[in-house]
Design brief:
Layout lengths: L5 E2 L19 H10 L5 H33 L12 H6 L6 H14 L3 E3 L1 H9 L7 E3 L5 E21 L2 E19 L2 H11 L13 E2 L5 E2 L4 E10 L11 E3 L2 H38 L1 H5 L5 H5 L1 H44 E4 L1 H27 L6 E2 H16 L7 H12 L12 E3 L4 E4 L2 H15 L9
Parallel strand pairs: 1-4
Antiparallel strand pairs: 2-4, 3-9, 4-5, 5-8, 6-7, 8-10, 11-13, 12-13
Helix pairs in contact: 1-11, 2-4, 2-11, 2-14, 4-11, 7-10, 11-13
């Protein structure tokens, strides 16, 4: 919820205190930070910038191949595709999309972009608390054959919570900066059985549903797979992103709904009391005779006249019917307001959907891996005389980021060194390939000088696009 929004008082879902692997600076800023922390001459700084550009190109090439594999696997079931599907090619290529392979590729790509999966316990904790938009929600996880939520970045925003009447107070709410949602619906047979179980009288008329309707107007195909990326989602509002979320009134809303209804019924009952007495007298007259009707003050001529009976009956129906309609209309209006809040939340916080999500997180993964490799390589190449192990490099970079730039990160130093060394293995015809970063038997890390590192990268880049001769040719 944006700053200044007004909502009810609520509990806050506990947030994991683990550090994020995400580095909250763009690639250019990280390069500048490295250069600013090192006393190098202009030529050395220019060489380092060139090294970072080629290194980032390598990361982009590898991750784009993985992204393309994910797109190819998802293409047969992409609900947003505007391409004509070649049925003949699909027939010769084997069975259709494999949801398990799609899930595996997507999870790997999300992990490389430094997204962390939200556990089922965290989701259930969010469901157990009142959301920041003052609605109580329910999600039937049985509707999904697979569901996964990933988040990255944690910040806080200030909202105003209503205490008494117009009195409000500011309150901080934890917010995930980015949220990934992957859902795979159960097949159509499941929803047919679910509808039949909910409405047994319609069991014979149950048909396979073509779509699953969401509260915000979106439609989803049973058996379909969907991906969404959102921004700035309050931790307690993650459940609002699910397409099958059901909105329910909170206990506070039920109380506020019931009190006016009870209060409005009192004057209506007092106004209708004479008609109630008249109806009681007519009933007693018809069953027990004139003496019984006289005890409640109803004369014989009143009981025999049909018009007062009809008038009193209509007065009761109109009075209580009008009250019931007014309260029902109030409930419907409140539900519409709830749904509008959900729709606005999804609309203004949506970043991408389906295949566009793959491109977005692939670009993010390119930056994240490039930033980690650049930080590790720079730390080693700028301190050639220090004998640092991988844990020491990791600790020093994290301390530098915390003390100098005010952020706490969980750097993947081992993975960064692995990626740097994997690049040099692309050079063919070398029994002992040159390494951008080497680790000796004592665990001491050493980085190749910037000039040598550029030569290694350029040679690897040329080898990457040079056709290799097949044996026997």
């Amino acid at each position: 919820m944006p700053d200044g929004a007004v909502g009810g008082d609520r509990a806050t879902t506990p947030v994991s205190a683990a550090r994020d692997s995400y580095i909250p600076f763009d690639l250019r800023t990280v390069v500048r930070m490295c250069l600013d922390s090192t006393i190098w001459d202009p030529a050395a700084k220019g060489a380092f910038r060139r090294f970072t550009r080629v290194l980032a190109a390598f990361a982009a090439h590898e991750i784009r191949e993985q992204c393309q594999a994910l797109k190819t696997a998802f293409a047969p079931i992409d609900p947003d595709s505007d391409c004509v599907r070649d049925e003949a090619a699909s027939h010769h290529s084997g069975p259709g999309a494999d949801p398990h392979r799609i899930s595996r590729l997507f999870r790997s790509l999300a992990e490389r972009a430094d997204f962390r999966e939200v556990s089922r316990q965290e989701l259930l904790a969010a469901l157990a608390t009142v959301s920041a938009v003052d609605v109580r929600t329910h999600i039937d996880f049985d509707d999904f054959s697979e569901v996964a939520v990933f988040r990255r970045g944690l910040t806080h925003c200030t909202i105003k919570t209503r205490r008494w009447f117009f009195l409000t107070r500011p309150r901080e709410v934890p917010v995930y900066q980015r949220v990934l949602l992957m859902i795979a619906f159960e097949p159509a047979e499941y929803f047919v059985g679910k509808a039949a179980a909910k409405h047994p009288s319609r069991r014979k008329r149950a048909r396979q549903p073509l779509v699953v309707d969401a509260p915000d107007g979106r439609s989803f195909a049973p058996g379909g797979m969907y991906f969404f990326l959102y921004k700035d989602v309050p931790v307690n509002d993650i459940e609002l992103l699910f397409p099958n979320v059901e909105t329910r009134m909170t206990r506070k809303d039920l109380i506020l709904f019931s009190i006016p209804a009870f209060g409005a019924s009192i004057p209506v009952a007092l106004k209708a009391l004479p008609q109630v007495i008249l109806l009681a007298g007519v009933t007693l007259y018809l069953i027990f005779g004139p003496e019984a009707a006289r005890h409640v003050g109803v004369a014989k001529d009143q009981a025999l006249q049909a018009m007062p009976l009809i008038t009193s009956l209509l007065a009761l129906v109109i009075a209580f019917g009008g009250l019931a309609f007014r309260q029902y209309n109030n409930f419907k209006n409140k539900k519409i307001r709830f749904l509008k809040v959900i729709t606005d939340t999804l609309f203004f916080k949506s970043v991408a959907a389906n295949e566009a999500v793959f491109d977005t997180i692939a670009a993010s993964a390119e930056d994240e891996e490039s930033k980690e490799m650049i930080l590790v390589y720079h730390w080693l190449v700028a301190r050639p005389d220090q004998r640092l192990t991988i844990p020491q490099v990791d600790a020093e970079i994290r301390r530098w980021m915390r003390d100098t730039h005010g952020v706490q990160i969980d750097l993947h130093t081992t993975d960064a060194i692995h990626h740097l060394n994997r690049i040099s293995t692309m050079l063919p015809g070398r029994d002992a390939p040159l390494a951008l970063v080497s680790v000796d038997d004592n665990g001491i890390c050493r980085a190749a000088p910037v000039g040598d590192a550029i030569h290694i990268l350029e040679a690897c880049w040329d080898a990457l696009f040079t056709p290799r001769e097949q044996p026997g040719h």
